[in-house]
Amino acid sequence: MKEIYLDNSATTRVCESAAKKAYEMMTQLYGNPSSLHSKGLEAQHEMDEARRTVAASIGAKPGEIFFTSGGTEANNTAVFGAAHALKRRGSRIVTTAIEHSSVYESMQQLEKEGFEVVYLSPDSTGKISPDDVRKAINKDTILVSMMAVNNELGSVQPIGSVYRAIAAAGAPALFHVDAVQAYMKMPMIPKKLGVDLMTVSGHKIHGPKGVGALYVRKGARILPLHCGGLQESRLRPGTEASPFICAMGEAVKYSQQHNVESIAELNRCFRQKLSEVEGLIFNSDEDCLPYIINFSIPGFRSETLLHFLAEKGIFVSSGSACAKGHKSHVLEAMKYDDKRADSAIRISFSDENSIDEADIIVHYLKIAVSTLARS
User: Fold this and answer.
1) From CA 246, how far away is CA 199, in angstroms rounded?
2) Which 3 state secondary structure label does DSSP give 239?
3) Coil, strand or helix: which one is 307?
4) Could you tell me which residues come within 8 angstroms of residue 225 by beta carbon, excluding any fewer than 6 positions away?
5) What three-state secondary structure class fits 221?
6) Which residues are bridge partners to 348 per DSSP?
7) How far apart are CA 297 and CA 166, in angstroms?
8) Which residues contact 350 (CB under 8 A, 6 or more apart)?
9) What is the rounded distance in angstroms from the CA atom of residue 75 to the CA atom of residue 231?
């Protein structure tokens, strides 16, 4: 049975160069980067090279890149770090109702601490209105956090409008962008976008799980979540996972070879084929990032379809992998009815997918619609 993996927004297969680098760091260059002897300096040199690679990929300086255990920790560090650093200058935070859970739940915690959090609602295509952004930001706003690309729908958010809105309001706010789904798939240059803090992740770009990075603009001050060492300029203390960090550097180099146009063509082909399935409704608009297509077949629960396809060697998602099957707060924010929301399926691409896979998944979806019991 041929395996068809269409869950690349959840995680990607580690590329060979990244796996080799991780193995090399674990078996040959295994010194602690903080050690002053030659073995430690070898590891530090490799890690410095990875930091330069990540920095160059977003037009930043190496000193603005701080490695973390992944996107969730980077998001938490940005949100809590900014809010606590600026709480004397205001209490208003602006975010969206469709953020990744690592931001969304952090905001709920900040509300318990007394911060005023404004959750902007999306339109029917999953996008936030720039006008709503402008109206929400006032002079007491200390943080704006908005994802670049929604992880469930692929909808591209108007992050370019946020910096101007902050400046127009005369707010002291820092601007944080969760760029996990956008990184290496669309241009993300924080200095051009007026972004102060930006989150990226390794395992979405063919690197290993357990590593990510937070861009912090030089001069932007946030507080650390942890104490206990001088690593990462004290912002993220603790012994660095040098094998994963260096592997992420290799994954960035690998991802720079990707052809976005080929993914766009793949998306068009899949959409054309999927439209042949009876009752199928697209939840992702055509102008979403082409790496993601979200659709529903009302009457068939997503979990049922997911397991049916998995039995055929086709791996998709019912939404965010972090939700583990729980109801999507993203689709809820878009005011989808229960039948449509409960049947949502997300397929997500990488360069390792091919057009012929569209025929296969559509073939089995048609069988599912004709044979499975409706909910």
Assistant:
1) 17
2) coil
3) helix
4) 73, 76, 77, 80, 81, 236
5) coil
6) 7, 292
7) 41
8) 8, 12, 13, 206, 291
9) 18
Burial class (CB in 10 A: 0-12, 13-18, 19+), 187: exposed
Question: Under 8 Å CB-to-CB from 239, ≥6 apart: which residues?
Answer: 32, 33, 34, 229, 231
Q: What residue has token string 């073939």? A: 363
What would the two tokens of residue 202 be? 């390794």
Is residue 350 within 8 Å of 206, Cβ to Cβ? Answer: yes
Helix (H) or strand (E) holding 339: helix 338-342
Q: In what order do the strands lie in the sheet with 197-201?
A: 65-68, 212-216, 197-201, 174-178, 141-145, 92-96, 116-120
HSE at residue 38, side-chain half, CA atoms within 13 A, is 1
pLDDT digits (tens, 9 = 90+) for 27-74: 999 999 988 899 999 999 999 999 999 999 999 999 999 999 999 999
CA gap 35, 283 in Å, rounded: 51
CA atoms within 13 A on the CB side of 375: 16
Give bridge partners of residue 344 from the DSSP assignment: 296
Residues marked active site are found at: 322
Please give the Cα distance from 371 to 273 (Å, whole number): 20
| Tally of CA atoms within 13 A in the half-sphere of 203 that contains its CB | 15
Nearest alpha carbon to residue 85 among 77, 74, 96, 94: 77
Q: What span, in angstroms and rounded, lies between the C-alpha atoms of 130 and 290?
A: 22
pLDDT in tens, 293-350: 999 999 999 999 999 999 999 999 986 555 555 778 999 999 999 999 999 999 999 9
DSSP letter for each residue of 108-130: HHHHHTT-EEEEEPP-TTS---H
Contacts of 131 (CB under 8 A, 6+ apart): none
Task: Give me the amino acid identity at 223.
Answer: L
Sign of CA dihedral 365, 369, 372, 375: positive
